[in-house]
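Sequence design from tokenized structure. All designs in this work follow the same two-part layout: the structure record, then the generated sequence. An example of the structure record is given first.
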């Protein structure tokens, strides 16, 4: 069966080992693999497997930083190959159809590992050879800017699950490519960062035996959203705005006990669509889940309109002046906020979280 998105390409990077002095990680390789699983699933990302490059820490990681992998050059080579392969693929299409093929093209660039915010950048993944004051890196903003100017891909999506700790003396890692010739048309870009400028991103913690399944909070929630949790219940579509509304609150809640909760940032001028349309049968209450009776009590002086955001992104509204809100909810993490996408839950206990698991309950917000 032909893949739904033959002109989509991807490079996914996961770096666990940094022998130059940064602490070892457990989540990035798992996160990169999980992202690739979504990409090549014909019912999800729909990419041909040959269009996807997975670059991860080798099973036997080198002990010396000078020989560590993956390197910036290896990552740049993969991105360059994606551009070359797209150009070749479009060249095989009849000339009258090439504009349509190019309009259907997309590049995914996913990175996970240790990261910094260089003085002249936004968010940068350190390559495996990095060590203090020697910080070869892939600065996401620079790479997306190059791709936008080059214009080969109609859409470019870049996600970075890494810290954005200030390193003002570090230089943003630019692509090794020559200055971009304008070879395509208009480009829509999406930049997704696990955390806000200057802050840390976190991965799950647990026993050594659990390391093989440990994940970064941002990556895990992002992929859950892409797989349908962020789908609009009316249209069945996962879009940029749906991801923003879903991923941000969930990640903030999961990291609420960290030194600084993660505040996800997703930037795009337009609403991209990801994966297939989810029919009404796959949106809303998942099959087999029992709805629990939940009573939500509001503070006595709270009178603002609110909306309840479901795990799949669906929303329903309530007026607290009407008293407690009695609803039937399936198990999962729900959020009460003021209507809109600002995730405003000021004045509510626990940032408006309503956690439902196995039984009816009363929630005092």
């Amino acid at each position: 069966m032909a893949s739904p998105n033959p002109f989509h390409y991807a490079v996914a990077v996961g770096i666990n080992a940094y022998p130059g002095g940064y602490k070892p990680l457990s989540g990035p390789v798992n996160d990169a693999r999980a992202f690739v699983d979504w990409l090549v699933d014909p019912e999800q990302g729909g990419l041909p497997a040959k269009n996807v490059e997975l670059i991860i820490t080798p099973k036997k990681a080198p002990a010396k930083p000078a020989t560590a992998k993956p390197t910036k050059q290896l990552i740049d080579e993969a991105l360059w190959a994606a551009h070359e392969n797209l150009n070749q693929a479009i060249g095989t299409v009849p000339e009258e159809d090439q504009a349509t093929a190019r309009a259907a093209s997309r590049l995914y660039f996913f990175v996970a590992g240790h990261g910094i915010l260089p003085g002249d950048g936004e968010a940068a993944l350190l390559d495996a050879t990095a060590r203090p004051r020697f910080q070869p890196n892939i600065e996401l903003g620079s790479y997306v800017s190059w791709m936008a100017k080059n214009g080969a891909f109609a859409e470019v999506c870049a996600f970075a699950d890494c810290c954005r700790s200030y390193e003002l003396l570090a230089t943003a890692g630019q692509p090794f490519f020559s200055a971009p010739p304008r070879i395509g048309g208009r480009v829509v870009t999406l930049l997704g960062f696990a955390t806000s400028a200057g802050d840390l991103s976190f991965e799950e913690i647990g026993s050594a035996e659990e390391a093989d399944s440990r994940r970064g909070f941002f990556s895990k929630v992002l992929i859950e959203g892409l797989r349908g949790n962020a789908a609009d219940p009316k249209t069945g579509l996962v879009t940029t705005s749906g991801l923003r509304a879903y991923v941000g609150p969930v990640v903030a809640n999961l990291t609420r006990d960290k030194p600084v909760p993660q505040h996800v940032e997703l930037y795009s001028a337009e609403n991209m669509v990801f994966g297939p349309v989810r029919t009404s049968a796959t949106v809303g209450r998942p099959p087999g889940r029992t709805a629990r009776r939940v009573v939500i009590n509001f503070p006595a002086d709270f009178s603002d309109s609110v909306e309840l955001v479901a795990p799949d992104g669906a929303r329903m509204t309530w007026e607290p002046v009407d008293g407690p809100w009695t609803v039937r909810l399936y198990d999962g993490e729900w959020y009460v906020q003021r209507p809109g996408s600002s995730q405003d839950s000021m004045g509510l206990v626990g940032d408006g979280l309503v956690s439902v698991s196995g039984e009816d309950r009363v929630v005092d917000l």
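Residues 252 and 300 are 26 Å apart (CA to CA). We note this feature because it recurs in several other targets discussed in the main text.
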